[in-house]
Specification:
alpha/beta; 21 helices; 28 strands; globular
C-alpha cells in the first residue's frame, strides 16, 4: 500500500512538473498579460531588456531592443531622424532600393506656424517608418534655439517654447497615427554640440521651467509620445540621464508621461544610477551595462521593485509596436505621394524676408542668371543623424528650369564645372566634400556686367550646412565670407546699373547675419533646408505660383554678440583658458542670460534687430479687426477677424502676445501665448480666428516658492503679425492662481 501511494505521489509530482513546464513553454507576451510575463522572467532576462542590442532587421537603423524568444518578446527597431527616416538605401542580395523621403527640416516646419500642416507631413513620414519595418522614429528634436551657432538648430524648431512645443506635439501625433512611436529629444538643455557628451548646462530653475522644459512639457501632454530620449549633457552638475528629479519627478509625476525613457546613443558609466533615475533603456547597448545591472541587483543597489518598474514599462512599450503585432511591412511606401507632401509643406513654410518695390513675384518667363555653388548642390537637409538617404534632392537649376525660367546656360555650366572640380579634388585627396566650408568661385566684374546685360534678373543662392557633433562659427558661417560679400556687391552694382533686380535665396540651416548686406539686394527668400523638393517650392514662390506665408520662428540679430547667450557660448571664449583649469562654455556653460532669450530680450530692451521674431512678408496685405477677449473659468478666449486687403490670395499667421500686469516677478514686455493661421483667403475675404489661453499658460515660475504663479490684474492681449508689428489690442482681467511643483532640478553653481 505504501509503495502504491508513493507511486501515485511520484506520478502526481511528475504531472505537476510537466504541467508547469508546458505552461512555461507556452507562456507568451500578450497585451493583457504583462504582469504574468514580468513574473515569469529571470533576472538575466529582465536586465537584458533594459539594454539595447545588435540587430540586422533594418540595415542602417540606429538601434534595437533585445529579443527574449522564450517568452515571445520580439526585437524592436529604432531609427533616426527628424526630417525623415534614416536607413541604408541599398542592401546586399537585392536590386531593390530603400530610399526615404527627405521632408523639410524642423526649423522650416516651424516657420509654417501651422500644426495641421506639420501633422500632415509627419503622417506621411510615419507611413515610411511603418512600411520599412521600424517601430520608433528617434524624433522630434526640440531643444530651443538659445544661440544661432548651435550645430543642430535645423533639427529643432524655435527660440520660443510655445511654438516649439506645439510643432513637436503635432509632429508626434502625425507619426504615431501610423501605429509607430516617436522619441522626443534631447531631454534636456542640449543647446550646444561642443563637448555635448560632458558639458554641464548651469541653468536657473526659472529659465528651465519657463523655457528649456516648457516646450517638452507641451509636447508630452499634447502629443503623448511613446518614448523620450535623455540627453548626453549634465544639468546643474548631474547627467540628465541620471537625474531622478528630471526623468521621474518632473517628466512622470508632474507631466504624466507613461512611456519609456531611453538614453542618447552612448551611455555613461553610471548605468545603475540611470536605471534608478528612470532611464528604462540603455542604447545602443553593451555587455558592460548588463553586467553592471546584474551586479546591482545581486548587491541590492537596485531593488526588485525598481527593476520591475523599468521592465514593466519596456513590456508595455513593446506590445504597442508593429513588430510585436506581426505587421507585414511592405518595404514599398508611396514615395511619389510623399514627395508631393514634402513640396507642399515647403511651399507653405518658406519666408519672404525682403521685397523692395514688389520685385517678387517674377513673371516666370525671365532669363535668369543663377549664382552660387548651392544652386547646383542644394541643401535639402542637414548632416549627422538628421540626414536622410533620399534618391535625389532637387537643385535650383533643375527647379528654375522646370518652373519655366530660362537660365543663363554659360553661368549654369560654370557652376556645375566648379562643383564637379571641387568634388573630384576632394575625392582624390581621400576626403568627403566639406560642405561646411564651401569655396565659392570668384567671378570678375566684367563677367558680371556682361551677364547683367544678357539676363533679366539675378538670383543668388547662398548656402550654409551644419549638423550633429559640431557648432557653427561666426566668421565665414554666421557672417558672409569675403567672396560672398564681394559677389553680392558686384552683382548688385552691375544689375542695378542695368536697371535690373537682384534676389537672394538663403538655403541655410541656421540664422546668419543679414543687416550689413540686405540693402544691396531687392528681395530675400528664406527656405532654410526645405527637403528634397524644396527647390521646386522656392521656384514656385519666385514666380508667384505660391504666395509665401511663413514667419520667422526666431530672431535675426544685427550682430552675433547682440544675442545675450553669445557671451556664454563656445565661440566667445578662448577654449584653452579658464579659471581653475576649466574651459568656460566647454566643460560648463552658464546660462547667465536666464529667461532673456531671443525676442524676450530684444523686445523688452528695445534692441534693434535685422528681422524680428514672427516676421514674414506676403504678396498681399491683411487687416486685423474686431479684437475680442473673454475671460472664462480657465483663462480667456481671444478672437480676431483677418481680411485679405490685397489683390492675390494668401494666408496670414496671427500671433497672440500677452503683457502681464506690473508688479511681482520681472517679466518680458510680451510673450507668445497662442497663434493661428488663416485658410487661403481670396482678395476681400475674411476669417475670424479663435485662440484659447489658460491661466496656467499665463503663469511665470517663482523660484522662491517653487510654483507657477498667474498674477492678478489686467492683462494686455496683443494681436500681431510679428512680435514688433502689433495690429490690435484688448484687455482681460485675471484672478491670482498658483501651482506648486517639486524643487528637484538643482541650481547652477556660482
Amino acid at each position: 500500500m505504501k509503495k502504491t501511494c508513493f507511486t501515485i505521489l511520484l506520478c502526481f509530482a511528475w504531472g505537476l512538473s510537466s504541467y508547469a513546464q508546458t505552461i512555461q513553454q507556452t507562456l507568451t507576451l500578450r497585451e493583457d498579460n504583462v504582469e504574468e510575463i514580468l513574473n515569469a522572467m529571470t533576472i538575466e532576462e529582465k536586465v537584458s531588456l533594459l539594454v539595447g542590442g545588435l540587430g540586422s532587421l533594418v540595415p542602417g537603423a540606429a538601434g534595437y531592443t533585445r529579443e527574449i524568444e522564450r517568452l515571445g518578446i520580439p526585437m524592436t527597431v529604432l531609427a533616426d531622424g527628424p526630417a525623415g527616416l534614416r536607413i541604408q538605401p541599398k542592401r546586399e542580395g537585392t536590386d531593390q532600393t530603400f530610399y526615404c523621403t527627405g521632408f523639410p527640416t524642423s526649423t522650416l516646419l516651424a516657420s509654417s506656424w501651422d500644426p495641421e500642416l506639420v501633422e500632415t507631413v509627419t503622417t506621411a513620414m510615419g507611413n515610411e517608418v511603418l512600411e520599412y519595418g521600424v517601430d520608433v522614429l528617434l524624433a522630434p528634436g526640440m531643444n530651443l534655439h538659445r544661440n544661432p551657432l548651435c550645430g543642430r538648430n535645423f533639427e529643432y524648431y524655435s527660440e520660443d517654447p510655445l511654438l516649439s512645443g506645439k510643432m513637436a506635439a503635432a509632429y508626434v501625433r502625425g507619426i504615431q497615427k501610423n501605429g509607430v512611436g516617436t522619441s522626443v529629444k534631447h531631454f534636456a538643455a542640449n543647446n550646444q554640440e561642443t563637448n555635448r557628451l560632458e558639458n554641464d548646462a548651469r541653468i536657473s530653475n526659472r529659465a528651465l521651467r519657463e523655457l528649456y522644459l516648457k516646450n517638452f512639457e507641451i509636447a508630452i501632454k499634447e502629443g503623448k509620445p511613446w518614448t523620450v530620449m535623455s540627453s548626453y549633457n549634465k544639468l546643474n552638475g548631474e547627467y540628465t540621464q541620471q537625474k531622478h528629479g528630471l526623468l521621474t519627478t518632473v517628466l512622470r509625476d508632474e507631466w504624466g508621461f507613461d512611456g519609456i525613457v531611453m538614453t542618447d546613443w552612448g551611455v555613461k558609466d553610471g548605468t545603475v544610477k540611470s536605471a534608478k533615475a528612470g532611464n528604462d533603456l540603455m542604447e545602443p547597448g553593451r555587455q558592460v551595462e548588463i553586467d553592471r545591472l546584474l551586479a546591482a541587483v545581486n548587491e541590492g543597489t537596485i531593488s526588485q521593485e525598481e527593476l520591475d518598474r523599468n521592465v514593466r514599462r519596456m513590456l508595455q512599450y513593446i506590445v504597442k509596436t508593429p513588430h510585436f503585432k506581426g505587421y507585414k511591412f511592405s518595404n514599398k511606401p508611396d514615395l511619389k505621394a510623399h514627395a508631393v507632401v514634402a513640396r507642399k509643406a515647403a511651399e507653405e513654410s518658406i519666408i519672404l524676408l525682403r521685397n523692395e518695390c514688389n520685385t517678387l513675384p517674377l513673371k516666370g518667363s525671365e532669363k535668369v542668371a543663377l549664382y552660387g555653388l548651392t544652386s547646383v548642390d542644394f541643401f535639402g537637409i542637414g548632416t549627422g543623424s538628421g540626414e536622410v538617404n533620399t534618391k535625389h534632392i532637387v537643385n535650383m537649376q533643375e527647379a528654375m528650369t522646370e518652373a519655366g525660367f530660362t537660365l543663363d546656360e554659360n553661368l549654369a555650366e560654370f557652376y556645375r564645372t566648379c562643383y564637379a572640380t571641387q568634388s573630384a579634388t576632394e575625392k582624390m585627396e581621400g576626403s568627403a566634400i566639406d560642405k561646411r566650408h564651401r569655396s565659392e568661385p570668384l567671378i570678375s566684374v566684367k563677367a558680371i556686367e556682361r551677364q547683367a546685360k544678357d539676363n533679366d534678373v539675378a538670383v543668388v543662392v547662398l548656402g550654409r550646412i551644419a549638423g550633429e557633433g559640431a557648432d557653427r562659427a561666426v566668421k565665414d558661417d554666421f557672417e558672409l565670407t569675403s567672396i560672398e560679400r564681394e559677389l553680392l556687391q558686384n552683382i548688385s552694382m552691375s544689375y542695378h546699373k542695368a536697371g535690373k533686380k537682384v534676389v537672394v535665396v538663403l538655403n541655410i540651416v541656421g540664422v546668419i547675419e543679414t543687416a550689413s548686406w540686405k540693402h544691396l539686394v531687392d528681395a530675400i527668400v528664406l527656405p532654410w533646408a526645405p527637403g528634397q523638393e524644396g527647390a521646386h517650392a522656392v521656384a514656385d514662390i519666385l514666380k508667384g505660383k505660391v504666395n509665401p506665408s511663413g514667419k520667422l520662428p526666431m530672431t535675426f540679430p544685427i550682430n552675433y554678440m547682440d544675442m545675450p547667450s553669445s557671451k556664454n557660448f563656445p565661440y566667445y571664449w578662448d577654449m584653452t583658458k579658464g579659471r581653475k583649469g576649466e574651459r568656460p562654455n566647454v566643460d560648463y556653460t552658464d546660462y547667465a542670460e536666464g529667461i532673456w532669450v531671443g525676442y524676450r530680450y530684444f523686445q523688452t530692451n528695445n534692441v534693434e534687430v535685422s528681422y524680428p521674431f514672427g516676421y514674414g512678408l506676403s504678396y498681399t496685405t491683411f487687416s486685423y479687426s474686431k479684437p475680442k477677449v473673454k475671460a472664462d473659468k480657465d483663462g480667456f478666449v481671444a478672437t480676431i477677424t483677418v481680411t485679405n486687403t490685397g489683390k492675390v490670395a494668401g494666408r496670414e499667421v496671427v500671433e497672440l502676445y500677452v503683457a502681464t500686469p506690473s508688479g511681482g516677478l520681472e517679466k518680458p514686455s510680451r510673450e507668445l501665448k497662442a497663434f493661428a493661421k488663416t485658410k487661403l483667403l481670396a482678395p476681400g475675404e475674411s476669417e475670424t480666428l479663435t485662440m484659447k489661453v489658460s491661466a496656467y499658460e499665463l503663469a511665470s515660475f517663482n523660484e522662491e516658492h517653487s510654483a507657477w504663479e498667474t498674477a492678478a490684474g489686467t492683462y494686455e492681449v496683443l494681436f500681431g503679425s510679428s512680435v514688433s508689428d502689433i495690429r490690435c489690442t484688448a484687455t482681460c482681467k485675471m484672478k491670482a492662481r498658483s501651482w506648486e511643483v517639486h524643487d528637484v532640478l538643482g541650481n547652477p553653481k556660482e
